Amino acid sequence: MARVLIIDDEPGARAELRWHLDAHPGHTVVGEAATFEQAVALLRTAQYDLVLLDIQLVGGTGFDALPYVAPPARVIFVTAYDRHAVRAFEVNALDYLLKPVASARFAAALARYAAVAPPPAAAAGPLRLDDRVLLRLDSAHERFVGLADIRSITSCENYTEVLLVSGERLLVRRTMKSWDDVLPPEHFGRVHRTVIVALAQIERIARLNRAAFAAHLRGQSEPLPVSYRLVPELRAKLGARWPRD
Asked: What does the pLDDT look like over 58-91, one tens digit per residue?
């Protein structure tokens, strides 16, 4: 599976590229950016294999962004102008597509990528606490947030609500399972099947009765009930901070 970044200042152009990718199973969009500043942040932090890169960006150019592309990811330029084609290949771009992109031409570019793509790497481990994670708020808005700035994450069907230490709440297009895959387990844990908390944000665990507990988080007046089946895992993570029997 190829993890793809789309970097283009036009929402319509990004939508067109997503539409083309939908016709090619195994290619997943893992991030989008519209400006040069967003592009640099995304290229520095995301995990990706292929970048579909526009040349004209607000605040810079696609060529300016190339030093931030992580090896061994490959770049396919997608632009409305053919005058940059020679330079694109001089900087080892894999291909150069002109807008509007024909389906056959797009398929040929992906075939070229498949021919040179390295074998799939082993799955990446969890993020570190000092990492930032890209949150997709809706189809047009994304935001980077530091893991250390997250207080809790609550399931909202196929979405999740991220509560920041600042008190701000963000509705994010991400499932609880995908959070489990990237959060460092030594810093985050579930108190309920629908709630993940930052362990550092737990002020105390209160015993309600012999089998019931509640987690009190910093800056949050209402405690969170701790699911009985998750008590052993949470107790192990908190160690001495767990109330004595």
From this structure: 999 999 998 899 878 999 999 987 776 656 666 6
Q: Token pair for residue 179?
A: 């959070």
**pLDDT(152) > 70:** yes
Model confidence, pTM: 0.53
What gap in Å lies between CA 65 and CA 36, rounded to an integer? 7
Q: How far is Cα 170 from Cα 229, in angstroms, rounded to an integer?
A: 28
Cβ atoms within 10 Å of 139's Cβ, excluding its own: 12
Cβ atoms of 65 and 40 within 8 Å: the answer is yes
pLDDT of amino acid 118:
66
Full set of structural domains in the chain with CATH: 2-116 (3.40.50.2300), 132-241 (2.40.50.1020)
Half-sphere CA count of 140, side-chain side, radius 13 A: 5
Share of the chain above pLDDT 90, in %: 63
Q: What is the dihedral sign for C-alpha 11, 132, 123, 67?
A: positive
Q: Enumerate the β-bridge partners of residue 197.
A: 152, 189
Kind plus residue range of the DSSP H or E element containing 127: none
52 near 10, Cβ under 8 Å? Answer: no
